Amino acid sequence: MVNLSKQHPSAYKSLIALNGEADEAVKQAGLDPLLGELVKIRVSQLNGCAFCLRMHTRDAIAKGETSDRLAVVAAWWESQYFTDQEQAALGLAEEVTRLSVPAREDWDNGSLNDEQISAVSWLTVVMNAWNRVAIRSHYPVGP
């Protein structure tokens, strides 16, 4: 097993810097940091990354997220727990991750402006990269 962060630490540090830029873009776009955690959780669910799921679920709880909302984030479109903006961000994150569905008309309800769409897109790109680093490196996830 190859730990990517140890094999090429400068690439890993660049990803850390890009992560910071994406988080800052979310903040500058006026999006709630909790929405950012929901996006990170959903992207990690789609990618099957246990390491990132555990980390960002804990981060979301620390920021005040509820267990009910966390329980249904995998089926966000079937619940009434999420605001229009959260639904739009989660749909956009799925589109960027899957590169096919849902189509823009399925998530673009007008609640995200262009800056926010860009911020959520960058956050999703970075989260996809982190998921792949963690999965490929076989980061341990135990109790």
TrEMBL record:
Residues of the signal sequence? Answer: none
Q: List the residue ranges forming a coiled coil, or say none.
A: none
- InterPro entries registered for this protein in UniProt: AhpD-like, AhpD_core, CMD-like
* Superkingdom of this protein's organism: Bacteria
Domain Carboxymuconolactone decarboxylase-like: from-to ranges: 23-95
Q: Its Gene Ontology molecular function terms?
A: peroxiredoxin activity
Q: What is this protein called?
A: Carboxymuconolactone decarboxylase family protein
Protein source organism? Gordonia namibiensis NBRC 108229
